[in-house]
Amino acid sequence: MEKLIVTGGKPLKGTIRISGAKNSAVALIPTALMADSTVVLDNMPVLRDITTYKSILEDLGARVNFSEDQMVIDPSSLQSIEMIDDNVKQLRASYYLMGALLGKFGEAVIGLPGGCDFEPRPIDQHIKGFEALGAEVRNEHGSIHIKAKQLVGNKIYLDVVSHGATINIMLAAARAKGTTIIENAAKEPEIIDVATLLNAMGAKIKGAGTGTIRIEGVEELKGCRHSIIPDRIQAGTYMIAAAATKGDVLVDNIIPKHMEALTAKLEEMGVEIHELDEGIRVIGKPSYNSIDVKALVYPGFATDLQSPMTTLLTQANGVSVLTDYVFNSRFKHIPELIRMGAKIKLEDRSAVIEQSDLQSAKVKATDLRAGASLVIAGLTVKTGRTEITGVEYIDRGYDNLVDNLKQLGADVWRES
Ligand code: EPZ
Fold first, then answer.
1. Ligand 1 mean position to 98 CA, how many Å?
2. How far apart, in whole angstroms, are the C-alpha atoms of residue 82 and residue 404?
3. Which of 111, 243, 343, 396 is the most buried if burial means most Cβ atoms within 10 Å?
4. What is the pTM of this model?
5. Which residue among 97, 116, 144, 162 is best mutated to probe the pocket of ligand 1, counting the most ligand atoms within 8 A of its Cβ?
6. Could you tell me the residue range of the domain that residue 94 belongs to?
7. Among candidate residues 307, 405, 362, the one with its CA nearest the CA of residue 1
8. Based on the structure, what is the number of domains in the chain?
9. Closest ligand 1 atom, residue 397 Cα
10. CA distance 80 to 286
11. Looking at the structure, do residues 293 and 363 belong to the same domain, yes or no?
């Protein structure tokens, strides 16, 4: 079993370059399958979820070459509409194969997706969308079977603003006959990224990034080259780590506009922020104000930064309240932070966080962002050695984490 060892107490200092966005990449890879020729994806992050997706594509019969930060996907030899093996269970984003294969072949059989299981994560809105486009959907023996004689555009109102459902419906609708309108669509930058790739492949999508997306179905999608947007959640994690360790870090190669909700909250705490064209410099201060944070759908404060932010708020004077309105119970990091001395109470979907002196301890990452919150806690601890197990979760979303943190002056290493 691998663990991360952190000996904290050192302010992070220097520059960190952020890689491509995981949550874009895991949608763009299945999107590429819908082309009739090669798609080149640049700025691809090197992560466990990405290598898992590569294996899934190869099992489906596609040819994939992944080197450095470029993935070349040739879908012309794709043979199967069925993917039910263990890889799909490891990866939440395998659900995008439903929309991609349904759009391409009118049919898909996909094992129920796995991934970070911080709470039950339904896919009813994805299915509602496929059915509205004319597909029949059955759940048989742990797999979803989806089939349509002809996908036909429709007006679809999402009952909950869902990032995944918006993308999945957009994929299927790109090849439907006629026009699809998705109302109450999610607005995340990753959704715009997928629409940008689809449009470069020949799709006709307007309004991505707003609450109403309009898709005119087309008969074919061709290969192209696309560069993935920077990972705003990785960027936010390093910004929070810089503030928590009272450091001075330039988080580079990002789109500062994507970070606005976090930047506003850090400034409210008293963190010094300098926004540049493609970077944000975060300068920590000796003490911080307590604040309230509400995790909401984009452009609100990202739920994926809720757990790292919990750790930072243990360093603020007084009492802060952090409420997650996206996921009811994404709080598995809290018992582990309490093990490290954090004074946190859970009240319904809110964490009430008091200023705390964190201590080193043996803790366990139970999902990706919970893992990030524990790494930041370890960096904040003044003495002793924090041991974090569950490293496999952290590897799903943070590439080169250990080297990046070392480059910023942290004492972090892996042990088996
Ligand atoms: C995406 O998950 C991200 N995953 C998550 O990132 C992120 O936390 C989440 O969006 C919210 O931003 C990927 O992009 C692969 P949702 P997704 O559908 O699409 C409810 C990370 O750490 N809902 O927007 O699965 C759902 O229960 C991960 O990188 C339904 O009720 O999330 C939740 O309360 C974890 N029915 C809310 O909507 C549905 O059919 C938002 O979920 C779908 C969702």
1. 16
2. 38
3. 243
4. 0.97
5. 162
6. 22-227
7. 362
8. 2
9. 29
10. 58
11. yes
